[in-house]
Write a structure and sequence with these properties.
The protein has 14 helices and eleven strands. The chain has 328 residues and is of the alpha/beta class. Helix 2 packs antiparallel against helix 10.
Length: 328
């Protein structure tokens, strides 16, 4: 009897310590390469989080759509199959939070400072709050940059887009943007873009240079136009139930790690995009064209109606509030 009790006690201790030692795993899935601003920041977060929690948390990174493509990863997060993502702000529409598509409005942010006024102020915080009803907690905004346009023909005026099949992310604002230019937008997962460009399923696309270069899109696009017509950035999000269920000290340590990874991310995003642009130039396969101020004014004029057209979807008040912040 005594032996049985001792054994039971030993088993309890063993299973308790096995439990105590089992790390909390955060599966962090994303669709871009590791040498992009998002890819590098995810790695920085992993290092910081594991260090700050003395290994009680293990962050497993799954870059390059290794686990899931764009739409699937959001479903996987809601189901709890992964715990953390950083989808682009253009990808929240299918989830039912259309307001994030405001970030896709052409020429709405004249500078990065204007953008930060929005993401770091009450508008940005309010948008993250909207995710809660979807079982998602928004932790931070991560940066990428302003997009360039590419195709196999020069794109200098809005008229040059006529009839082109252009790959877009799943945002109705981007759909409206391309239609306003006379192009035919086609939603494709990020992982499918290179092949679609290579095989002619689509004629062109838009993305910041870092995404274009790391996916080798420039190898299958003869022309790139630096138009700065729109922005691409991210929201880092977690499964709310998972996040709320973490021990408080762990959550606090992870919040600090996320804050530091975010500072790092913002510091490298522009530099990475500049480096990618140089690398595209050096590769010599693509002709780069910088819009003149006059040409940019023409693009802006052509694309401004998209703001009005999208009021019904995004909300007039939100668009006005963003314009007001951006003008400060
Ligand atoms: C895209 O699909 O073009 C981007 O959202 C990819 C990314 O995550 O930067």
């Amino acid at each position: 009897m005594k032996l049985k009790a001792t054994l039971a006690a030993l088993c309890a201790v063993a299973s308790f310590s096995a439990f105590a030692q089992a790390p909390i795993v955060i599966k962090f899935s994303h669709v871009v390469a590791t040498d992009t601003p998002k890819g590098q920041a995810a790695e920085r977060f992993k290092q910081l989080a594991e260090k700050a929690t003395n290994g009680r948390v293990k962050v497993e990174l799954y870059p390059n759509s290794q686990l899931y493509k764009d739409k699937e990863e959001l479903e996987a997060l809601q189901l709890g199959a992964v715990q953390m993502l950083a989808p682009s702000l253009a990808k929240f529409g299918p989830l039912g939070v259309k307001e994030f598509e405001a970030f896709d409005l052409p020429y709405i942010f004249p500078t990065k400072t204007a953008l930060y006024n929005v993401t770091e102020g009450p508008i940005g915080k309010g948008l993250l709050k909207k995710l809660e009803s979807k079982g998602i907690t928004g932790l931070a905004y991560w940066d990428n940059g302003f997009k360039v346009m590419s195709a196999n023909k020069p794109l200098r005026t809005p008229a040059d887009f006529k009839g082109l099949k252009m790959r877009i992310q799943s945002s109705k604002v981007l759909d409206a943007q391309m239609r306003t230019l006379g192009a035919n937008p086609q939603v494709l997962a990020f992982s499918e873009v290179y092949q679609a460009l290579q095989t002619g399923v689509v004629d062109g696309t838009e993305n910041p240079p870092s995404n274009m270069y790391t996916q080798k899109m420039h190898e299958v696009q003869k022309h790139v136009t630096v138009s700065d017509h729109g922005y691409l950035g991210y929201a880092v999000i977690v499964n709310k139930k998972f996040w709320d269920g973490l021990p408080a000290d762990i959550r606090t340590a992870l919040e600090t790690a996320m804050r530091d990874a975010t500072t790092f991310e913002k510091a490298i995003a522009q530099r990475d995009n500049d480096m990618a642009m140089d690398a595209i130039k050096k590769a010599g396969k693509t002709e780069i064209y910088n819009l003149s101020a006059k040409e940019q004014a023409e693009w802006r004029k052509a694309l401004l109606p998209v703001q009005k057209d999208m009021e019904g979807r995004i909300g007039k008040d939100l668009i006005q509030a963003i314009n007001k912040e951006a003008a400060k």
